[in-house]
Amino acid sequence: MTPSEPHPAFHALHARGFALPNAWDAASARIFQAAGFPAVGTTSAGIAYARGLPDGQRLSRAEMLAEIAVIRRALSVPLNADIEAGYGDAPDDVARTVREVAALDVAGVNLEDATGRPDAPLYALDEQVRRVEAARGASGVFLNVRTDTYLCGVGRNAQERLEETIRRGRAYLQAGADGMFVPGVTDPAVIRVLAAELPGPLNVMAAPGAPAVPDLLAAGARRVSLGQGAMLGALGHVARIAAELRGPGTYGAMSESFYGFAQAEALFASP
């Protein structure tokens, strides 16, 4: 392992394309690992929900790093950590976050350009470039930079949104990003354009109704993640269990996908 590429196997996954499930605790991380995924990501939204908070940097840097550390210890496969917008506006804040999370032996991080401020939902391009440069200088982990141009509805129309995404993506990659993450895009036609225009691997986020992972990869995505999707699916199932228990008092929903006690004990029997 070299300082510039501390997890070469994780970097290599982006050359051939892969699906990256996102965990919100040690249990979900172990489930994904046991299913055979070559790497696991964290979901900041899922972690926030599990702690009774809404999404959007409601946890402090220290709180999020503590959650990432627990998930990392549960895994033997590489972990990609969602560090939201870096827990501070200044480049030094971002650099500190990346250094501290890299010390947990993560393989990569996601860094977004969303500010969380309604009046200015994205960092100005030059400001985010400086933040990306600081992140790059702090560690050699795989730096996956996310732009929220689609989630925030940037531009007056679809063409302007696409052009701004490409403009930001090229700038972030030139500043040191290893990959670009564009959540909100699952249309294969748009993915093909982005993959052709961005000189780095493209990450998209799947959700119910999206094309299947092989179709997204065929369109040019190199990484397909789930974000908080798996956790929301789990919450939906728990809601069904709750409704049935509160109503007729039966256990059909719980029985549908019951994970046995012995299975759970075996899942956590070894590191």
Automatic annotation (TrEMBL):
Pfam families: PEP_mutase. Signal peptide: none annotated. CDD domains: ICL_PEPM. GO terms for molecular function: catalytic activity. This is 2-methylisocitrate lyase. SUPFAM superfamilies: Phosphoenolpyruvate/pyruvate domain.
